[in-house]
Amino acid sequence: MINILIFGPPGSGKGTQSVKLAEKFNLSHHSTGDMLRAEIAAGTELGKKMSSIMSKGELVPDEVVIEMIADKIDSTKGVAGFLFDGFPRTVVQTDELEKMLNARGMKIDSMLVLNVDHDELVKRLIVRAEQSGRPDDMDPAVIENRINVYKAKTEPIIEYCRKRGIYQSVNGMGTIEEIFERLSGMIKKILK
Ligand code: AP5
Ligand code: MG
User: Fold this and answer.
1) 176 touches ligand 1 (CB under 6 Å)
2) Residue 129 domain flag
3) Cis link prior to 10 (omega < 30° from 0)?
4) Which domain holds residue 111?
5) Ligand 1 centroid – CA 48 distance (Å)
6) How many domains does the chain have?
7) CB 89 within 8 A of CB 146
8) For the chain, which terminus, N or C, has the lower number of CB atoms within 10 Å?
9) In terms of Cα–Cα distance, which of 97, 67, 96 is closest to 83?
10) Which residues of 12-27 are buried (b: 16+ CB within 10 A; e: fewer)?
11) How do residues 16-49 score in pLDDT, each as one tens digit?
């Protein structure tokens, strides 16, 4: 089993690419953002508590997402590996993920970081706002806050992964297909 982090700021294409990569390489795709939005859509107590945090573009508490991921790791079978999208988001989450995987004889094998210019991120999210219905896409100030939260709380994970020799940078500019080809080439090497 291989474990890959798809990493990058809001709008960098993590979700778009993860869906395609999961299908191509038989990977199980886990997006904590999607899981949280499913809780909100289902009207659960957890969803109600998390929705105001998410609509401001702040991070939900570490323990909430760690529990969600732990459940998925134990219930997912019959795949070549995991693709984590939007998780981990803090160094604490990264430590916990590593511990969870180590306890099961696995590790984080690779971190693929999508690099996209700031203006392109904003442009993509404003376009998406029209169809997504995501409250955190509707307000340009919230988009900026998400990018700032990424820089302050999430980017430090890059250094953590660089020290472990698993960090790889990817050009996230271009068409969806071009970026998919780049990522596919990298995953083929990881699977060898
Ligand atoms: P999350 O759902 O993870 O959102 P995000 O990080 O803000 O990222 P996005 O989903 O907006 O972007 P993406 O990189 O997936 O890009 P996408 O492929 O969609 O998190 C939402 C919230 O949940 C957080 O703010 C936080 O509150 C909470 N949360 C989630 N996980 C958490 C965690 N672990 N800890 C704490 N809190 C957590 O692409 C964006 C758009 O661009 C799409 O419309 C797409 O069609 C388009 N697009 C993609 N690629 C291209 C391209 N190459 N060219 C043109 N358009 C493109
Ligand atoms: Mg996403």
Assistant:
1) yes
2) yes
3) no
4) 2-178
5) 20
6) 1
7) no
8) C
9) 97
10) bbbebbbebbbeebeb
11) 999 999 999 999 999 999 999 999 999 999 999 9
Q: Does 189 reside within a domain?
A: no
**Whole-prediction pTM:** 0.97
Query: 36 C-alpha to center of ligand 1: Å?
Result: 12
Q: How far is CA 121 from the centre of its chain?
A: 15
How much is the pLDDT for 44? 98
Q: What percent of the chain has pLDDT over 90?
A: 95
Mean pLDDT across the chain, nearest whole number? 96
113: in domain: yes
Q: At 14, which CATH number?
A: 3.40.50.300
Please check whether residue 192 lies inside any domain of the structure.
no
Structure tokens at 154: 């999430």
Residue 173 CA to ligand 1 centre (angstroms): 15
